[in-house]
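Retry 2 of 3 after timeout on previous attempt. Resubmitting structure tokens to design endpoint.
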């Protein structure tokens, strides 16, 4: 196992529904992407959080996954990012792929579509959590609105060393984002890497995102906070620190099964 995991995130100002422009923006960061074990890009980084799911849906190993593999090959890192995945004749998936220099290692499909914005009308929800082993670390990928559902995290609690949450989380609820990232780290005694986007979304650019991507340690401490601009931010995680926190504060062993509620 690798004791220290070096991670980086590109807090991207996503150009609305312009895949080639977004690929170029990521390419511009390449000179800064050396010596990382893991690099993340936001939810739907190649298009923005578009409801034109059928128009922008791609096949597996299509343009976006091929681009992620290109970045992985150039950097030698595991690279993760979000895109719109075709789903046969059904509505597409909001997918988070993790790609190594040798190819796609995992695809997580967002379990909780954001119905408040109508995502459930244009995307099929996923139904499976994933735990990926990378350099001895156990990684669990999740997407944006999943952060509001602690049961998704709890199902892999004690197994997961690092939760990866990519998002298009708007500025109007950014305090929720930071509070929930901290809560998920504390209650599961794990690192949480939350990567948000910046900039305006939609054809009329009415929805604003102000970033505040963060790395939270298993004690709930915010070790990195990226601020509000397009940027690359990075940090190092320690498996020794994770194990010490769990050993000194063995809360996870006290998790109890909850019986159904009986109403009287």
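Retry 2 succeeded. Sequence:
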């Amino acid at each position: 196992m690798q004791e220290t995991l070096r991670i980086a995130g590109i807090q991207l100002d996503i150009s609305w529904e312009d895949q080639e422009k977004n690929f170029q923006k990521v390419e511009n960061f390449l000179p800064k992407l050396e010596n990382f074990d893991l690099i993340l890009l936001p939810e739907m980084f190649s298009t923005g959080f578009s409801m034109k799911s059928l128009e922008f849906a791609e096949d597996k190993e299509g343009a976006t996954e091929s681009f992620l593999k290109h970045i992985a090959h150039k950097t030698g890192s595991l690279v993760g990012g979000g895109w719109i995945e075709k789903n046969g004749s059904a509505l597409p998936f909001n997918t988070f792929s993790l790609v190594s220099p040798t190819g796609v290692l995992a695809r997580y499909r967002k379990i909780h579509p954001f119905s408040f914005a109508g995502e459930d009308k244009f995307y099929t929800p996923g139904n499976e959590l994933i735990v990926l082993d990378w350099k001895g670390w156990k990684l669990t990928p999740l997407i944006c609105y999943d952060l509001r559902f602690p049961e998704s995290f709890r199902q892999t609690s004690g197994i997961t060393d690092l939760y990866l949450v990519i998002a298009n989380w708007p500025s109007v609820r950014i305090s929720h984002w930071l509070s929930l990232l901290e809560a998920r780290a504390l209650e599961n005694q794990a690192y949480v890497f939350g990567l948000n986007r910046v900039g305006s979304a939609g054809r009329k650019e009415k929805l604003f995102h102000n970033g505040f991507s963060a790395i939270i340690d298993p004690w709930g401490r915010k070790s990195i906070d990226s601020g509000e601009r397009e940027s690359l931010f990075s940090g190092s995680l320690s498996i020794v620190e994770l194990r010490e926190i769990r050993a000194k504060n063995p809360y996870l062993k006290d998790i109890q099964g909850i019986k159904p509620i009986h109403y009287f």
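Attempt log closed. The first strand starts at residue 4 and ends at 11.
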